[in-house]
């Protein structure tokens, strides 16, 4: 049994495994292997290809191509041994491409520290999931960081891999994770990676273009089901979706801000300097621990809507 034979079983199984067990870090993980491949290719490519941008393009092509080919080959080879083996491999690769539970668990550490009255611990926990400096943040700013992280990563950590999983199976989802990993490792605008990581950063933008906007729409639809404002989500999504340095991240953040009735964005400190970012949303409600709980519900609600909508389409086309 391959993905093509039972896509619904693979997707539902992967989503349930992610929700119940989270990321299986104790088992061999494709993303770890992808990271090692990227690290092993950087120096040889830089030596062989003097033009850093061309070398970066080759890194992108090799990494994504190898990731897709290996995933597809593993599923195919396992299915030749036994249909159940092919299904199991497809299920595992689909499972490790999803990250809703991990996003929830990591961000929850921040709020748990606040609930314990330990502001320094909350700042440390937040520093693991955001790029800004956190050492001097007060509770509302810590909450803002956690909410922004969950909102943004609902797009590229939850909806995007699920989108590619239902679109092209586990191999395509793993290829997307390769793009994501490339961006996180070499997609920086510093001296070392400005040219070498250019292709990876731009391709990550392309890969997330549709999923980011889909995430915004899913949040609008999920908001009333989660006890939040669907109208607010739609209004702020349309108004502030482009108020972000990223061409994609603003859409889920805007929809979340509108649904929650809060303002995101604004001033952040990076390397000792204050960076003023455009604001997203209106301050109708204060940023609180309840805000964080609501954005987590919104994340899961958006994921559930995508799964339900896809299953309905599969059933419709089978009729």
In short:
The protein has 319 residues and is mostly helical. The chain has helices at residues 7-21, 30-48, 52-81, 83-96, 100-115, 119-127, 139-186, 198-222, 230-240, 250-260, 289-318; strands at 264-270, 273-280.
Folded structure, characterized:
There is one protein chain. The mean pLDDT is 95. This protein is mainly α. The protein is built from 11 helices and 2 strands; from the N terminus they run ααααααααααββα. It has one domain (7-318). Strands 1-2 form a two-stranded antiparallel sheet. 71% of the residues lie in helices and 5% in strands. The chain has helices spanning 7-21, 30-48, 52-81, 83-96, 100-115, 119-127, 139-186, 198-222, 230-240, 250-260, 289-318, and strands at residues 264-270, 273-280. Its main location: membrane. The chain crosses the membrane at residues 52-71, 78-98, 158-179, 217-237, 298-317. Pfam families: CobD_Cbib (PF03186). This is Cobalamin biosynthesis protein CobD.
């Amino acid at each position: 049994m391959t993905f093509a034979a039972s896509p619904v079983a693979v997707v539902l199984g992967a989503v349930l495994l992610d929700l119940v067990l989270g990321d299986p870090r104790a088992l061999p993980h494709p993303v770890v292997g992808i990271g090692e491949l990227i690290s092993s290719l950087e120096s040889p490519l830089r030596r062989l290809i003097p033009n850093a941008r061309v070398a970066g393009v080759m890194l992108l092509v090799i990494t994504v191509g190898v990731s897709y080919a290996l995933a597809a080959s593993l599923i195919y080879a396992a299915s030749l041994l036994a249909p159940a083996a092919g299904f199991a491999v497809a299920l595992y690769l689909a499972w490790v491409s999803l990250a809703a539970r991990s996003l929830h668990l990591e961000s929850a550490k921040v709020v748990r520290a606040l609930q314990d009255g330990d502001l320094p611990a909350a700042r440390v926990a937040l520093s693991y999931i955001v790029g800004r400096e956190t050492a001097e943040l007060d509770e509302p700013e810590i909450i803002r960081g956690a909410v922004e992280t969950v909102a943004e990563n609902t797009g590229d950590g939850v909806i995007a891999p699920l989108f590619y999983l239902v679109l092209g199976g586990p191999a395509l989802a793993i290829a997307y994770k390769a793009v994501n990993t490339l961006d996180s490792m070499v997609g920086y605008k510093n001296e070392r990676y400005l040219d070498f990581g250019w292709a990876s950063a731009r391709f990550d933008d392309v890969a997330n273009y549709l999923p980011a906007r889909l995430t915004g729409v899913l949040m609008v639809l999920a908001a009333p089901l989660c006890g939040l404002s669907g109208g607010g989500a739609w209004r702020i999504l349309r108004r502030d979706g482009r108020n972000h340095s990223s061409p994609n991240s603003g859409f889920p953040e805007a929809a979340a801000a509108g649904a929650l009735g809060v303002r995101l964005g604004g001033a952040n400190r990076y390397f000792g300097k204050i960076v003023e970012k455009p604001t997203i949303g209106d301050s109708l409600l204060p940023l609180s621990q309840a805000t964080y709980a609501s954005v987590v519900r919104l994340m899961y609600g958006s994921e559930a809507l995508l799964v339900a909508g896809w299953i309905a389409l599969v059933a419709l086309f089978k009729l």
